[in-house]
Amino acid sequence: MELLPNTFLALPNDKEKAKYVVLPIPYDSTASFKPGAREAPRRIIWASKEVEFYSSISDFNTPSGFVYTLDELTVYRDSVDMIPHIRESVSELLKEFPKRKYVFLGGEHSITSPITEVLKPKNVIIFDAHGDMRELYEGTKYSHACNTRRISEQNTENILVYGVRAVCFEENEFYESQNKIKLFKPNEKEEFLHALNKLSGPTYLSVDMDAFDISIMPAVGTPEPGGILWQDYMDFLSVVKSRGKSMDILGFDVAELMPIPTFHSPEFMAARLVLETIAAIEKPKDK
Ligand SMILES: [Mn+2]
To answer: What is the distance in A from the centroid of ligand 1 to the CA of 168?
Structure first.
């Protein structure tokens, strides 16, 4: 019997060969407008089965067994239970799959802070339309709207956020009072790439799909017009490639995709983004 694995790119799971481990986290309890991001991990994996193994942009061909896809993480409704659950699960993941790179498929964006708490990167690069710098939102510190703020409270040194175009008054006051987080608007790509070039050491990447313009990424929970385009992300990956090991990317997440049942291009874009990100990490320009 010939069966198609229900894994990223439909690659066979191989614990020995795997360099990347994918953990799907179908959690969306604090979504402000409406839930739906819980559907994203399985839709991204479904779409990925149609994505080429080969990245012509990075000239990288994904070997068989290179990516190991875990089953979905169990989900608790309340963030008070879910955030520690993610933290503990990531600790277990590091023990079971040491020295790999880790890919997390959200789910809402609040999944990132418990991940970075465990992975302990020096730098965090975030793509997001929103500042996510609220102290509290709708009664919880662990809302998707507080994600960047929580990461800034950890032992991180630099947090670059690109694509930002929605920040509230309270967030702006907080932003002015600190210098760990640097926000870049969609039209500040050169400044963002310049700042990126100065980072070195362990780095984590978090991609909230609402950083992209609604014309190419309408399937998000909290859409904002005026976002970045695909080429902007590719320009970012060019810098990742040129930096090679000097910017050591420990892992990344893709969050806030809220699939539209009858429209499948957003999940194809997210699946392709995961592939291109892996390809860029694996294929430095000078090789
Ligand atoms: Mn966002």
So the answer is: 13
